[in-house]
Amino acid sequence: MSKYIVNSDSYFCMGSTHKICEDYAISGLTPRSYVILSDGCSSAKHTDVGSRILCHLTEKILVKENIFNPDVFIKNILKSMESALNLLGMQTNNFYGTLVLAYEENDMVKVVIFGDGSVITVDREGHVMLHNVLFNTNAPDYLAYHLDEKFKKAYQMTNTIKSINQYEYELFKPIVMKFPMSNFETIAIASDGLNSFIPKGKLSDVEIARKFVSFKNFNGEYVKRRAAKAIKELEKEGLVHFDDLSIGSIHIKQSGD
Questions:
Q1: What is the rounded CA–CA span in Å between residue 151 and residue 59?
Q2: Which partner for 207 in 33, 58, 154, 203 could form a disulfide, CB atoms 3.0-4.6 Å apart?
Q3: Which residues does the chain have with pLDDT short of 50?
Q4: How high is the pLDDT of residue 30?
Q5: How far apart are the first and last CA of the chain?
Q6: Distance between CA 72 and CA 112 in Å, rounded?
Q7: Which CATH fold would you assign to the domain 4-254?
Q8: Which pLDDT does position 157 carry in this prediction?
Q9: What is the pLDDT of residue 140?
Q10: CA 226 to CA 221: how far, in whole Å?
Q11: 237: helix, coil or strand?
Q12: The predicted structure's pLDDT at residue 168
């Protein structure tokens, strides 16, 4: 019998200044719980399509792997992206977007971030912590840059700096976080739309994040319900998110709780 009962769900919505939602998120439970999201770049064309394709290509790889290796994944996802470009007649910049995934593996929830994003954790005492991975110049290093060596080299020259709390960052390498399932009841991931609520200063980033993980229950579309309610609550306080927002959560209940 498993030590844990796990559920996952995801949600995405358009920001107040956008005409097309370029964020996307999916989740699943087979063969293990996972959440995948992508935030398409607003300054590139058709990244709303690219973010959706990127999530589903990632899902296809993730569900086949018993042990997920980020380095092997990069090779596989780039091959899949190149195939999609050729098959669909897409351009490389259609795939300009972040990729964040959380998945269950060996009694851990692991989070892998390509580009920027946020992680919200709730431990078994109910403490909420927000981990932000943000670029000071708002220019994340997208996976798609690996498909264009000239652009990759030009980007490397910009010396972009990240704000990533205690996590080390290496250019063109993902940030990997690991959370023991015994210590946490919720691991949520979100796009940088979570940090786009304005005006700034009314509530702290952690207070805003807490609203998105204050779940009443974990049945069905529990993330969708909570996120929609959180957005309404924040609107009543005069706060709106100008950027698209995607969020997903893995909830871990210990057997016997």
A1: 27
A2: 203
A3: none
A4: 92
A5: 14
A6: 13
A7: Phosphatase 2c; domain 1 (3.60.40)
A8: 61
A9: 80
A10: 9
A11: coil
A12: 64
pLDDT for 255 equals 80
Contact yes or no for 68/60 (Cβ under 8 A)? no
The answer to whether the pTM exceeds 0.90 is yes
What whole-number distance in Å separates Cα of residue 124 and Cα of residue 249? 15
So what's the pLDDT on residue 188? 99
Residue corresponding to tokens 């699943």: 28
Q: Which two tokens stand for residue 93?
A: 């910049």
Joined tokens for residue 91: 């351009």
Q: Which two tokens stand for residue 209?
A: 């994040």
Q: Where are the alpha helices (DSSP H) in 110-186?
A: 149-156
Per-domain boundaries in the chain = 4-254
Residue with tokens 């990632």, as numbered in its chain: 58
Render the burial of 104-139: b for 16+ CB within 10 Å, e for the rest: bbeebbbbbbbbbbbbbbbeeeeebebbbbebeeee
